[in-house]
């Protein structure tokens, strides 16, 4: 007869396979119906969208993506990872390589443990005990460490496998870190805006004048400073530019409606003379909508142009910051300064490589120090409280997974009805539902954490995402692993603990029930492989957000459709998927030698996640900036934390199984692993963070010529958003020029020359 635990795993397999098939079928349908979502990069390539280097957005060749079912899988497989590093982003390359490496790691681990540990555990003696014995092993526990007795000689086999897996893990992670560092050096030496720009934090009060800042850096690097300014945020100018864009969008919308349907009118307020008084009173009149928005567009352009030219007027509306932006003439000068101590004190004039231009949240630069400290403190307290609250939820979820065990205690005797239910019902409730509920409830946390963390001085979008990833990993580490492990161990042995009343016996029971908790984690990883990973392919949250915006905005013009296509929902959620993968790796590493079947499920997860993520990154997602793979450094230490946790738990288990020699050797392995992780990090970390001057000079060739110096478009990317040159809006109404001319509306469309003209002076020209 199948045990309740085995039934739960079988339910996870069966339901997971069905859900995967449903998701795949829905995806095949939706990618044909919504190509602007599931083939976004091809759409962006069609409209010739360009990046800061003037290159058209890359999309895989069309012949790679057919219309037959599962053609997307082959298309993703055919794409070279080197092309992803060059044309998509280094972030994408690093993430995919990490998934591939973990797939190979757990695949090899499964082959090793399946051929050695599973036969070893299956010959254990606890399966022969009485079913009423708390240490009785049945079902999948027979091929786990739960089937071994104390002082069992088979524990030596477990220790040997532990050592082999540790060597394999460090070999894989070393290769990954080495490869990441190689590509990161090339990235930092390449022609990108942030290769020339340095952001200086904590600028002293007496350096808040732009001329002083320019002179200070010109003195250190003579002839290398192209643009040096005390960063300010022109809130009013940015607001006017947003209104200008709104006016252009509205004008084009009414042009589209005029040509496609009836002319629209919008009521506006003007002042006319009142016959009964000498003053003026407001009176509403109706005027053609196109005229109104065209006049509004012109008025806003005049206001913006005047403010950008009037230095005195602009000085009254800008918000000061304690940041400075320095753009250097060459990349090697910028690389040198970010590794230098500029000021007498460590807390002033702190240089760092500037984020890519589109990743900067300019208004956050103006946030005061005290508000940053206040909101950061609030975020820490709030996130801590959330983790504690979710730990309590984990306790309740764990109780759901141990209803049969709880029913044996007097306090929960009312649950004895559970023992009369069919095995498949108990397996569904105790095995399948708890990890599914925990995964669903945990999905809310990163959204809340991101809101709280963004209240601080989060001026770098990508740095904020790294913080959210770290918080999410800590959250999952505590609530989805430790809280479940501890509470599950207690609840599964609650009746025996109450009966014995002995502290020594209680500790022994709790510790020896740790291997039995593998069933919950097996279900969790299995559901991650068959439900959560395929769910990423479907992108139902993105569809919901995009659909909601479509209902609210009702996009008609090409400009509106492009804005809808490239919203935040089109960004790949590296921060979330990194953390989920790290949680799967944690459970799989810890239980990989306790319950070897875990390695098979982890292999399935990373295989599915690799192909799903590869397709999404190359076909469906686009973001105009990248982080240069900076998430990998935190990812490395998250995986090291998983490994250290595994080795600490195994050392404790060896001790509980009264195998002191194995416990001591496992402890030495833990110490050695910590030292080796520090050595690997020290070897690559500085180069991965700063790059190397040799790489920069090698990128120049034999001589440094004009092509190696900073291009003017790179400089303008780091202007205050309010000072960036305003450009002629192109005709993106969705109507051709012939249609607009036939409707007599040509005067409302400014002529396009193929190249945008500046409507405002550049700060460099001033």
Structure description:
The protein folds into two domains: 4-190 and 369-691, no CATH class; 236-315 and 725-748, no CATH class. The chain has a four-stranded antiparallel sheet. A two-stranded antiparallel ribbon has the order 3-4. By secondary structure, it is an alpha+beta fold. The protein is globular. It is built from 30 helices and six strands. Helix 14 (369-400) packs antiparallel against helix 16. A hairpin with a 6-residue loop joins strand 3 (265-273) and strand 4. The N and C termini lie far apart (84 Å).
Describe the secondary-structure layout.
Layout: H1 4-33, H2 35-38, H3 40-46, H4 71-78, H5 81-88, H6 90-122, H7 155-188, E1 197-201, H8 210-220, E2 225-233, H9 235-260, E3 265-273, E4 280-288, H10 289-309, H11 311-315, E5 319-328, H12 331-337, E6 350-353, H13 362-365, H14 369-400, H15 403-406, H16 423-442, H17 445-453, H18 461-492, H19 494-500, H20 503-512, H21 518-538, H22 540-553, H23 558-565, H24 574-591, H25 597-620, H26 631-656, H27 660-690, H28 693-700, H29 712-716, H30 737-742
Antiparallel strand pairs: 1-5, 1-6, 2-5, 3-4
Number of domains: 2
Residues in helices, as a percent range = 55-70%
- Radius of gyration from the CA trace? 31 Å
What would you call the structural class?
alpha+beta
How much of the sequence lies in strands comes to 5-15%
Largest sheet: 4 strands, antiparallel
C-alpha termini separation: 84 Å
Let me know the average pLDDT.
87
Q: What is the spatial order of strands in the main beta sheet?
A: 2-5-1-6
Q: Please count the beta strands (DSSP E, at least 2 residues each).
A: 6
The 3D shape can be described as globular
Low-confidence stretches: 269-275, 751-766
How many separate helices? 30
Transmembrane segments: 6-27, 103-122, 155-174, 373-400, 432-453, 474-498, 597-613, 634-657, 663-680
Pfam family, one: RSN1_TM
Domain CSC1/OSCA1-like 7TM region: 377-654
InterPro entries: Csc1-like, CSC1/OSCA1-like_7TM, CSC1/OSCA1-like_cyt, CSC1/OSCA1-like_N
